[in-house]
Amino acid sequence: MRCVCVDREGVSDIPVRLLIAAVLTSLVVPVFWSAYGDLSATITEGALDSELFELVSSVQDVMSGGVGSRVEVSIELKGWGSCDIERIEVGGMADPRSSESYLIRYVISGRAERRMAPQPLTVMTTEGGSTLVLSEGSFVISVTHMMMGTTHMATLGLEG
Question: HSE of 135 in the Cβ direction (CA atoms, 13 Å)?
């Protein structure tokens, strides 16, 4: 058992203990916070990939049907922990020569942009012929197989 020295000036080893605690805290907290940020980003990416895969599957299903085929898909997009979803962009201009119209792009805080695309490649656009921009939240998206000239495309719209 350790004896603590007490005299008129108080406990003599408290400042040393406080210094050790401060040094250990300053070393451990940044490592923990970094690991927590990485874990948050990994979980957010996994959940977001899963939700966007549902959208991609719906696009594939609608495109395998005839012109006018339509389906609605519910997706929930949210960050986890210290990680937020900065932006999600689906498709682009109704131009088969534009690579943007084939892609789903997203950025979560602290990470590079990620991209995914339905296979076979499918033009995705809104009824107005632009990019569908989403943020965090719950959405019901309608996917319709449309035709513009000789180009088959998936038209996306937000419901309700």
Answer: 1
